[in-house]
Recover the amino acids of this structure.
């Protein structure tokens, strides 16, 4: 049975904008994206919203709902109090294009800066075999749907635009971790470049990326902290220093 | 204007649009940690009431100062002077840096106090008040990378505190095979400290996390798997062990000042 929902939607572009109040019908079982589509169909025909799969797998409908970065297609309207006004805004870490659509090209630039998988040059296709225990860590990171909610919530860039130059962000730390933990990847300087070029040291472990990840990837515990520990291995480990085992990796 | 108020971003004047009680968790964290700091500082400078009848406070163990009660020392070993520049030096101050450093650089506590004390950020998607941010890339926060040093030191402390817990199974007269409430308190405290250390991210990395090739190192993979299970509860162990250590110190102090009687079960 339909009921009325009070919705506040941010409308505007890079020059100006603001929150607009609307009242819209909502049916049992609907998600926030359903309601936005109904607003678009009945009241705001030019409302811009990016979406695709409506199944939490494409990562397109990332936005902020009551101030929290979330996927609109995975946010049940019933999860809010009846009578509560739901506020919907674009991601606040990226430049806005129009209404709920932001320019996330920052992330694509950062993706290009990460060196690709580097297997041994003499490895022929189909030659390598991996056991499940070697694959598992990478598999968790491969669940990433690139919704960029982790990038949006990370205060290093969300609250400091100037850090975008030197900080890749949690999504790309899991990419670096995935490659550095891969048994067949032979690129030696991933740890050092993670620290010195991709800004791993700027992360202060406040775990917001993990909190918002719709795929429940343990970004901080399984990727960022292990990478920080690997950096300690090559730069700050006392046992290795004292034992003379510290092997400095050659810079690329 | 920077951050969420940058010119290209959506024009929203609020620092956050969160409607839940996002401030509650950092407020509680601040309250608990600040209370602990005040109490620990008082106790560290008190320099007394840390030993009674084979019970030694974890704040004062190992007791390395010449000022230590002889029974509280490790086989009478007191390598550190009782005074420094003519000021009396509490035995707790000599060793405080190790447990303090371990907790200060702990990956869980970093989250807790960056949020609660430094508001960086106070909560997820809540704009922080600072205009600049360099994270842990320069002094003093680059010292967070010393966590591993403190982890190794913490293991030594755990061994010593376990020894203290074992010693507490003596009667007042020094006979073995007796157990008091104090014994249970020290056993609980040292056990939780072991869980806190073994669930540590550095421990997880050291036992196997640093490997690229788990299948080539099955024993280390198994160790890593076990530590990973504990690691999921690291936050809980951090709080439980902190509370247990504080309570152990309170208990020993109360017994040492004769405010409480240490009840013996047998």
């Amino acid at each position: 049975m339909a009921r009325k929902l009070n919705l506040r939607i941010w409308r505007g572009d890079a020059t100006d904008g603001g929150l607009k109040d609307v009242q819209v019908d909502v049916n049992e079982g609907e998600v926030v994206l359903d309601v936005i589509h109904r607003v678009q169909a009945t009241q705001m025909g030019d409302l811009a919203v990016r979406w695709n799969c409506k199944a939490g797998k494409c990562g397109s409908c990332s936005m902020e709902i009551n101030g929290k970065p979330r996927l609109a297609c995975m946010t049940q309207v019933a999860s809010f109090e009846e009578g509560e006004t739901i506020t919907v805004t674009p991601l606040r870490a990226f430049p806005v294009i129009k209404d709920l659509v932001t320019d996330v090209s920052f992330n694509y630039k950062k993706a290009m800066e990460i060196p690709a998988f580097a297997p041994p040059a003499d490895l022929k296709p189909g030659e390598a075999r991996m056991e499940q225990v070697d694959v598992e860590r990478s598999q968790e990171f491969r669940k990433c749907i690139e919704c960029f909610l982790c990038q949006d919530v990370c205060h290093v860039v969300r609250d400091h635009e100037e850090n975008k130059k030197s900080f890749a962000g949690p999504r790309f730390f899991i990419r670096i971790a995935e490659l550095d933990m891969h048994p067949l990847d032979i690129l030696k300087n991933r740890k050092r470049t993670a620290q010195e070029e991709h800004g791993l040291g700027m992360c202060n472990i406040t775990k917001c990326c993990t909190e918002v990840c719709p795929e429940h990837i343990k970004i901080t515990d399984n990727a960022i902290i292990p990478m920080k520990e690997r950096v300690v291995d090559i730069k700050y480990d006392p046992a290795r220093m004292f034992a003379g085992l510290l092997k400095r990796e050659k810079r690329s | 204007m920077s951050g969420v108020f940058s010119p290209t971003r959506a024009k929203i004047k609020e620092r956050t649009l969160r409607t839940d009680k996002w401030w509650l968790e950092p407020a509680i964290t601040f309250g608990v940690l600040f209370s602990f700091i005040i109490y620990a500082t008082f106790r560290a400078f008190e320099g007394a009431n840390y030993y009674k009848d084979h019970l030694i406070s974890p704040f004062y163990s190992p007791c390395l100062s010449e000022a230590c009660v002889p029974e509280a020392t490790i086989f009478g070993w007191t390598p550190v002077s009782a005074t420094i520049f003519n000021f009396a030096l509490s035995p707790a101050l000599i060793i405080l840096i190790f447990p303090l450093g371990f907790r200060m650089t702990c990956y869980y506590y970093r989250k807790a106090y960056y949020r609660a004390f430094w508001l960086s950020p106070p909560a997820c998607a809540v704009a922080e008040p600072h205009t600049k941010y360099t994270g842990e890339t320069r002094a003093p926060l680059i010292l967070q990378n010393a966590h591993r040093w403190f982890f190794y030191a913490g293991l030594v402390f755990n061994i010593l505190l376990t020894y203290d817990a074992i010693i507490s199974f003596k009667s007042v007269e020094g006979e073995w095979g007796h157990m008091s409430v104090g014994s249970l308190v020290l056993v609980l405290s040292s056990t939780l400290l072991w869980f806190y250390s073994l669930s540590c991210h550095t421990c997880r990395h050291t036992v196997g996390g640093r490997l690229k090739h788990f299948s080539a190192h099955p024993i280390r993979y198994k160790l890593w798997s076990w530590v990973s299970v504990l690691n999921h509860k690291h936050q809980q162990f951090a709080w439980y062990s902190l509370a247990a250590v504080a309570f152990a110190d309170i208990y020993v102090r109360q017994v040492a000042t004769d405010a409480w009687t240490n009840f013996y079960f047998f």
Chain A touches chain B through 66 residues (CB under 8 Å). The radius of gyration of chain A is 21 Å.
